[in-house]
Amino acid sequence: MSATVHPNRVEVMISAEQIAERVRQLAAQISADYAGKQPLVVGVLKGAWVLTADLVRQLTIPVRCDFVRVASYGMGTETSGQPKLLLDVLEPVAGADVLVVDDILDTGISVAWLLDHLRTKNPASLRLCVLLDKAERRRVPVTADYVGFSIPDRFVVGYGLDCGEQFRELPFVGHVKGDQ
Ligand code: IMP
Ligand code: MG
Questions:
Q1: 74 phi/psi in degrees, rounded to 5
Q2: Which end of the chain is more exposed for a tag (fewer CB within 10 A), N or C?
């Protein structure tokens, strides 16, 4: 797919209103599950920056926030194998209740690697929240504890997700018209 597609060519699959409602529900569930605790929310850059910002503002529990950056894709749309850690978590992880927030669970390769990496830092607990889950694409066994929406195997953009660094700013999740 060309990297110069106009935003008008992105077809809405999940509207901004649907996302906002689902994020509210996830935040209520997470707030209940972590009642009395102060989890460390670890957003996975860049894709999860929008979800992380929206999610933490709906929580009714105190949190610490940090980010990691994992590169698994070049300019293409397929995981390139071995993920690279470009930015590690800087907040203390040992003994913390860590909630990883990612944009989409696809093959699972990068997040499985990230969860293993975080586990070596001895968190008290480790859970995963994703906005989108493409279960049929999974190549390694990873399940998210909190899932916004299960979607079919289509490449999606918007709400933090990109295609060649385009479309992260769109307030909805969509599909590029004419693409597979
Ligand atoms: P995985 O290692 O294959 O699970 O890759 C996960 C990462 O690939 C996600 O965090 C996204 O950054 C990216 N990714 C996977 N599917 C899509 C998609 O449909 N649109 C945009 N990015 C995607
Ligand atoms: Mg990502």
A1: -85, -130
A2: C
- Cβ pair 91, 66 in contact under 8 A: yes
| pLDDT single digits (tens) 40-81 | 999 999 999 999 999 999 999 999 999 999 987 554 555 556
Please check the confidence at residue 1 and state whether its pLDDT lies above 50: no
Residue pair 104/134 in contact by the 8 Å Cβ criterion? yes
Among protein residues, the one with the nearest Cα to ligand 1's atom 5 is 106
Q: What SS3 state is found at 136?
A: helix
Closest to 143 in 3D by CA, of 154, 157, 133: 133
5 Cα–ligand 2 center, Å: 21
Residues paired with residue 45 on neighbouring β-strands, in sequence order: 69
Q: Closest Cα to residue 38, out of 68, 69, 59? A: 59
